[in-house]
């Protein structure tokens, strides 16, 4: 079996095409294995328990009191990495919205601007947080 | 550290721009009575060369403070309205004494009121144009989000 990589800067996600002379049991098993693949999860700590967090389930990652937390729909987890390190490791759907926060764009419901000029982002899980004006063009770039 | 560097960079650019803009404005306003690089009253008070030096340097100081103060727009802790108000207060506290000293306002209350009124109008326009530019960007982002979310359903 040969494994090749083709770079596509236009692609918004990883896409795998299996080339084979015919669809055999081996091919089906391979495709199932690929479908079940979870990108290297993040280790989240909550009440002393370590949980492997699927990055797709993370709503936002933020720093508070010099600690980094990741929020999912179920819980909030302590992450033992800096936002700076995470920014490089996270998939493309994550975008920095301020010096202290990165959000999953798949979990954004909408953005709002009030008369005072404060930009708020509404996320799944009833989360509302502030977007820095400096990062708004970056958010736009990821979403458009 | 980056904020201090940014402040120094903005202030330096502002100083140069302030000197150029200040001199151009004085030339434009005195053009009808013969081109001069300082207000006639200032020349009368200090003599031509010191008046021109004072006019140029103080215009630079005004530009330095006003341009340097734009750093508030980069600060996350201030929203757009707060940043605009802070900048306006800093600019007025610098502009009023300098413009009086340089005889731009004729050192009369009416002159100061005109400067204040023009300044407030300018700041309302700045706030409105920046606000609208963000509003348009956010509208586009929300449209993109709607397209994405409807595609997932």
Provide tags for this entry.
heterodimer, A: 144 residues, alpha+beta, OB fold (Dihydrolipoamide Acetyltransferase, E2P), seven-stranded antiparallel beta sheet, three-stranded antiparallel beta sheet, 3 helices, 10 strands, B: 153 residues, mainly alpha
Write the layout of secondary structure elements.
The complex is a heterodimer of chains A (144) and B (153).
Chain A: H1 25-35, E1 42-46, E2 49-53, E3 58-64, E4 67-72, E5 76-79, H2 83-89, E6 94-98, E7 101-104, E8 108-113, E9 119-123, E10 127-131, H3 136-143
Antiparallel strand pairs in A: 1-2, 1-5, 3-4, 3-7, 4-5, 6-7, 8-9, 9-10
Chain B: H1 2-30, H2 40-46, H3 48-68, H4 80-101, H5 109-152
Helix pairs in contact in B: 1-3, 2-3, 3-4, 4-5
- Tell me the span between the first and last alpha carbons of chain A: 37 Å
Tally of DSSP β-strands of chain A: 10
Assembly status:
heterodimer
CATH architecture of chain A: Beta Barrel
Structural class by SSE content of chain B: mainly alpha
* SSE series of chain A: HEEEEEHEEEEEH
Shape of chain A: globular
Number of strands of chain B: 0
Strand content of chain A: 35-45%
Shape of chain B: elongated
Number of helices of chain A: 3
- pLDDT < 50 runs, ≥5 residues of chain A: none
Look at the structure and give the mean pLDDT of chain A.
89
Report the structural category of chain A.
alpha+beta
Radius of gyration of chain A: 18 Å
Number of domains of chain A: 1
| Share of residues in helices of chain A | 10-25%
CATH topology of chain A: OB fold (Dihydrolipoamide Acetyltransferase, E2P)
Major β-sheet strand ordering of chain A: 2-1-5-4-3-7-6
Query: Which H/E pattern describes the elements of chain B?
Result: HHHHH
- β-strand percent of chain B reads under 5%
């Amino acid at each position: 079996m040969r494994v090749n990589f083709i770079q596509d800067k236009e692609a918004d996600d990883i896409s795998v095409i299996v080339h084979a002379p015919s669809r055999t049991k081996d091919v089906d098993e391979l495709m199932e294995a690929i479908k079940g693949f979870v990108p290297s999860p993040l280790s989240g700590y909550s009440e002393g328990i370590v949980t492997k967090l699927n990055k797709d389930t993370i709503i936002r990652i933020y720093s508070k009191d010099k600690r980094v937390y990741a929020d999912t729909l179920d819980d909030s987890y302590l992450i033992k990495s800096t936002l700076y390190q995470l920014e490089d490791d996270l998939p493309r759907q994550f975008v920095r919205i301020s010096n202290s926060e990165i959000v999953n764009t798949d979990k954004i419901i909408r953005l709002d601007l009030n008369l005072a000029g404060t930009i708020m982002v509404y996320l799944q899980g009833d989360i509302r947080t502030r977007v820095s004006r400096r990062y708004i063009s970056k958010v736009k770039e990821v979403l458009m | 550290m980056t904020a201090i560097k940014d402040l120094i960079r903005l202030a330096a650019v502002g100083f140069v721009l302030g000197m150029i803009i200040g001199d151009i404005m004085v030339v434009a306003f005195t053009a009808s009575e013969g081109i001069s690089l300082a207000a006639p009253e200032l020349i009368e008070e200090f003599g031509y060369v010191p008046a021109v030096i004072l006019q140029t340097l103080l215009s630079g100081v005004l530009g330095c403070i006003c341009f340097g103060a734009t750093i508030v727009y980069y600060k996350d802790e201030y929203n757009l309205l707060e940043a605009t108000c802070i900048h306006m207060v800093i600019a007025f506290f610098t502009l009023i004494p300098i413009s009086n000293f340089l005889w731009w306002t004729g050192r009369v209350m009416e002159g100061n009121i005109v400067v204040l009124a023009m300044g407030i109008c300018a700041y309302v326009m700045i706030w409105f144009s920046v606000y609208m530019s963000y509003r348009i960007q956010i509208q586009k982002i929300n449209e993109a989000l709607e397209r994405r979310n409807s595609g997932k359903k």
